[in-house]
Amino acid sequence: MTLQFLADGLVMGAMTGLGAIGVTLTYSILRFANFTHGDLISWGAYLTLTLSLLIGAALPSAGAPIGPFSFGWPILAAGLAAMLLTGLLALALDFLLFARLRRRGTAIIMVIASFGASLALRSLLEFLYTPAPTYFSRELQIAIPLGAGIRVTPDQLCTLALTAALVAAMHLLLTRSHIGRAMRAVSENPALARVVGIDVAAVIRTTWLIGGALACAAGVMLGLTVQIRPYMGFDLLLPLFAAAILGGIGSVPGAVAGGLIVGLAESAGVQFIGANYRAAIAFLLLLLVLLLKPTGLFGVRP
What we know:
- By secondary structure, this protein is mainly alpha-helical.
- The protein has helices at 4-30, 37-58, 73-104, 107-129, 154-176, 178-188, 190-195, 200-225, 232-235, 237-247, 252-272, 278-292, and strands spanning 144-147, 150-152.
- The protein has a single domain, classed as ABC transporter involved in vitamin B12 uptake, BtuC (Orthogonal Bundle), CATH 1.10.3470.
């Protein structure tokens, strides 16, 4: 029996965990389930693709792959710029829609509004780029054998390393910086945080920026290892919520751990049950967590 599903599950779980960080931050600070997060993943991937093509056209000599990887410097530069642009897109959504609803509506209204905004973003993306899948690069890669039947590509190893770096950066931001401590305070009690002088509006803006940037990073990694298409983020939405709830709402390490568990469970399901049941596995994990431990692995009871 090959153990290839372990490597595939870790790679997919890392991307799921990275995307789930944005979900858990949005839910813990803004108190609603943001369905647009999946579409921000798709927008981040397409923005990166567009910018990389522009950079490659302006600097043809810079488009060669870096070492054993399938991508060159244009994708790296475009990815950094797209993280900022996706964060600004998330911030614009908040300014145009969610900020107004926070003042007037309830959490359920914001959830319904996010579902509608998700449909609009996905339809616009499909209109602009067509439903046909595309790729960052069509360079062939030679998988590296690790033993026990496990093989990984250099791009997959790169996504794991980048995920670890981004998660470490998020941990340092939340634990060592002023804005990180403010975010944790608002997550615990927004009213009390406002009383002690914390700028809650600035915290909310930062949350949207970080969530959008991490969604873009997850989209780029997903595009590098699979393909880019308008529904890529929407298809990942249920695993994202399952990972965030499994790890415990508000916990960044929990979101990553939950993503790894969901990724490994889905990969094992494909190996031993069949690919047709992959989508059901995240749903079953979500149900089990809600029934057995609603606070998640790292969550605390309110």
